[in-house]
From TrEMBL, chain A:
It is found in: Cell membrane; Membrane. Pfam families: ATP-synt_A. InterPro entries: ATP_synth_F0_asu, ATP_synth_F0_asu_bact/mt, F0_ATP_A_sf. CDD domains: ATP-synt_Fo_a_6 (cd00310). This is ATP synthase subunit a. It comes from the Bacteria. The gene is atpB. The chain crosses the membrane at residues 152-170, 211-231, 237-255, 267-290, 296-318, 325-344. It is a multi-pass membrane protein. Residues 1-25 form the signal peptide. The keyword Cell membrane applies. GO terms for cellular component: plasma membrane; proton-transporting ATP synthase complex.
From TrEMBL, chain B:
Keywords: ATP synthesis, CF(0), Hydrogen ion transport, Hydrolase, Ion transport, Lipid-binding, Membrane, Transmembrane, Transmembrane helix, Transport. Residues 5-60 form the V-ATPase proteolipid subunit C-like domain. InterPro entries: ATP_synth_csu_bac/chlpt, ATP_synth_F0_csu, ATP_synth_F0_csu_DDCD_BS, ATP_synth_F0_csu_sf, ATPase_proteolipid_c-like_dom, F/V-ATP_Csub_sf. Pfam families: ATP-synt_C. It comes from Algibacter lectus. One of its GO terms (molecular function) is lipid binding. This is ATP synthase F(0) sector subunit c.
UniProtKB/TrEMBL annotation, chain C:
This is ATP synthase subunit b. Pfam families: ATP-synt_B (PF00430). The keyword Lipoprotein does not apply. Keywords: ATP synthesis, Cell membrane, CF(0), Coiled coil, Hydrogen ion transport, Ion transport, Membrane, Transmembrane, Transmembrane helix, Transport. It comes from Leeuwenhoekiella blandensis (strain CECT 7118 / CCUG 51940 / KCTC 22103 / MED217) (Flavobacterium sp. (strain MED217)). SUPFAM superfamilies: F1F0 ATP synthase subunit B, membrane domain. F-type ATPases have 2 components, F(1) - the catalytic core - and F(0) - the membrane proton channel. F(1) has five subunits: alpha(3), beta(3), gamma(1), delta(1), epsilon(1). F(0) has three main subunits: a(1), b(2) and c(10-14). The alpha and beta chains form an alternating ring which encloses part of the gamma chain. F(1) is attached to F(0) by a central stalk formed by the gamma and epsilon chains, while a peripheral stalk is formed by the delta and b chains. PANTHER family: ATP SYNTHASE SUBUNIT B (PTHR33445:SF1), ATP SYNTHASE SUBUNIT B', CHLOROPLASTIC (PTHR33445). The gene is atpF. CDD domains: ATP-synt_Fo_b. It is found in: Cell membrane; Endomembrane system.
Length: 395, 62, 166
């Protein structure tokens, strides 16, 4: 067989890719960026994982060693759009030639740019190449405002289009018939789930309607993004801190703007407590107002990042344990463990979308709830609560 | 160094807390199986809040 | 934390914010609104159908009760009518009997009166005939006496024998 004559590295890459398409691999060799061959050492694996976790300016699927002995990478470059000191600049990321070490300098619009660890830096006036300082930050370059279509932006657009296509066609189906067919039949219960399990119980029967668009969009956006991160295309959308910050800020602003009198009163002048306690409670409540979205963004980011790190570490087992178990043994071990953790990650993908939406709904519900401190006002709504109270006093 | 010890402590604390939540939820479900759905939802929410706290502290401390 | 701040990309944040706002608006217009409104419609339809079924069931029950009531009423009416008819019959029979008796009595009385009148007339006629007959006999006897005494006697006897008053 010809395969036996191929270098063992290539076999590793092949099994890597096969496994990836079967299970989860976000891997696409980082080393090919430097044309150094497949990932082999511990350091390379760490670099590779870190590279994957970050955003990227080009879209690599995989690379292979051609018959001419050179490495070819499969993928496509993405547009780089910058607001540099001399105005807007746009060019394709292929001009960096897959360089992420800041070696290739691209000159556009009167400015020089380098790609350092997937961040684009604009060199200061007159600088020919990037100079690193003591703290591993470049001293003669700064980051311009980067509106590039990076891999994550590409992924966000993809998710948006997918959602629009799926739910748009589901919405269109209702015009003709009252019961959806095909894929819509799977989507409809999810919409009902979000409405009946997340929005209604947390926000309240009368007010949930207004927030449904946000909650549904965010729920499906996070879920599909998480699932897209499980595919071998190497997306890591919800693992980008900027994305989760944005999502959490949306929740934060919606909560603040829909907060009613009671909500603000509970923050700045807590009723039914002594005045001195009120003064102590103000900073605590204000801090609580801010920590809620902060915990939202950190939770989503950390869960997805941790999931990707674990999956990639387990996939890397087939390289790190090759010496001990042999190619077949390490690959098998890696396959079993990755399969196991991937099943958990699929659950986490849903769970994080659910938690984010659930907590958003909970915070919104807290902001719009009408508190009844004394139960004489029971006639004005809150019948359910009263029933609960009565039941509790009996039990 | 101290940061790492702190992170470890946070993870231990979070683990204990999650264990408590899970254990109590199990007890609750065993006692009242018909309330399993409600208990699970509440458990997940509290677990998520705790998780957010632990992650936040971990990342801030790192 | 420094690592995170360094990783935070303002560009990606802006892109995500813009795309998310556009996505929410587009999804609201093309997906969530039609989906949620038709879900509501369907649920209301189901609710309405259930209520209508409940209403129909109640109506059916009412109808059955009405039927039962009407049946009972009809039965009571029939019973009343029968009773009335029986009473009328009894009454009629009693009346007829009374009438008949009175009529019969009247007829009998009339008959008795007629018989009495006839009898009186017959006695009166008989008296006349007897008187006439007696006169005739007396005449014949007188005639006979004038011819033969013995024969006269015989004749008288014979005549008397013939004229026995019955």
């Amino acid at each position: 067989m010809k395969i036996t004559s191929l270098p063992i590295h290539f076999l590793a890459v092949i099994s890597f890719l096969l496994l990836g398409s079967l299970v989860n691999a976000q891997e696409h060799s980082v080393a090919e960026a430097n044309d150094e061959g497949p990932v082999n050492t511990q350091q390379e694996i760490t670099d590779y994982t870190n590279h994957h976790l970050k955003d990227s300016h080009d879209f690599h699927l995989f690379s292979y060693q051609g018959s001419d002995g050179e490495r070819h990478s499969v993928g496509f470059s993405l547009p780089v759009i910058l607001w540099a000191s001399n105005g807007p600049v746009a060019f394709m990321s292929s001009e960096f030639h897959h360089d992420i070490d800041g070696e290739v300098v691209v000159e556009k619009g009167g400015s020089r740019f380098v790609n350092l660890h997937d961040k684009i830096y604009e060199l200061e006036e007159g600088a020919e190449e990037i100079v690193m300082g003591e703290d591993h930050h470049p001293v003669n370059a700064h980051k311009p405002f980067d509106l590039s279509i990076t891999k994550s932006v590409f992924g966000i657009l993809l998710v948006g289009l997918l959602l629009l296509f799926w739910f748009g066609s589901l919405g269109k189906q209702y015009k003709k018939k009252s019961i959806p067919t095909g894929f819509g039949r799977a989507l409809e219960p999810l919409v009902i789930y979000v409405r009946d399990e997340i929005a209604r119980p947390n926000i309240g029967e009368h007010k949930y309607r207004k927030y449904m668009s946000f909650l549904l969009t965010v729920f499906f956006f996070i879920w599909v993004s998480n699932l897209l991160g499980m595919t071998p295309f190497g997306f890591n959308i919800t693992g980008q801190i900027a994305v989760t910050v944005c999502l959490a800020l949306f929740t934060f602003f919606i909560v603040q703007f829909s907060g009613n009198k009671d909500y603000w009163k509970h923050i700045f002048w807590m009723p039914d407590v002594p005045v001195i306690m009120k003064i102590i409670l103000i900073p605590i409540e204000v801090l609580g107002m801010l920590t809620k979205p902060f915990s939202l963004l950190i939770r989503l980011f950390a869960n997805i990042t941790a999931g990707h790190v674990v999956v990639m570490g387990l996939i890397a087992l087939m390289i790190t344990l090759k010496a001990q178990f042999g190619a077949v043994g390490s690959t098998g071990l890696s396959l079993v463990l990755t399969l196991f953790i991937s099943v958990i990650e699929i659950l986490v993908a849903f769970l994080q979308a659910f938690i984010f939406t659930m907590l958003s709904a909970l915070f919104i519900g807290m902001a719009v709830a009408e508190h009844d401190h004394d139960h004489e006002h029971d006639e004005e709504g809150h019948e359910v609560d009263d029933v609960e109270d009565v039941r509790e006093s009996f039990v | 160094m101290y940061n790492l010890i702190g992170a470890g402590l946070i993870v231990i604390g979070g683990g204990i807390g999650l264990g408590q939540i899970g254990g109590k939820a199990m007890e609750g479900i065993a006692r009242q199986p018909e309330a399993a759905g409600k208990i699970q939802t509440a458990m997940i929410i509290i677990g998520a809040l705790l998780e957010g706290l632990a992650f936040g502290a971990l990342i801030l401390g790192k | 934390m420094d690592q995170l701040l360094n990783d935070f990309s303002p560009g990606l944040f802006v892109m995500q914010a813009v795309i998310l706002i556009i996505l929410i608006l587009l999804m609201k217009k093309f997906a969530w609104k039609p989906i949620l409104s038709s879900l509501d419609e369907r649920e209301q339809g189901i609710q309405g159908a259930l209520e209508a079924a409940e209403k129909a069931r109640l109506e059916m029950k009412n109808l059955q009760a009405d039927n039962e009531k009407a049946l009972q009423e009809a039965r009571a009416e029939r019973d009343a009518m029968l009773k009335e008819a029986r009473e009328i019959r009894t009454k009629m029979i009693a009346e007829a009997e009374g009438d008949a008796k009175a009529q019969a009595d009247k007829i009998i009385t009339q008959a008795q009166e007629a018989i009495a009148a006839e009898k009186r007339a017959a006695v009166a006629e008989l008296k006349g005939q007897v008187a006439e007959l007696s006169l005739e006999i007396a005449e014949k006897v007188v005639k006979q006496e004038l011819s033969d005494k013995e024969k006269q006697q015989q004749y008288v006897d014979k005549m008397l024998q013939d004229a026995t008053l019955n």
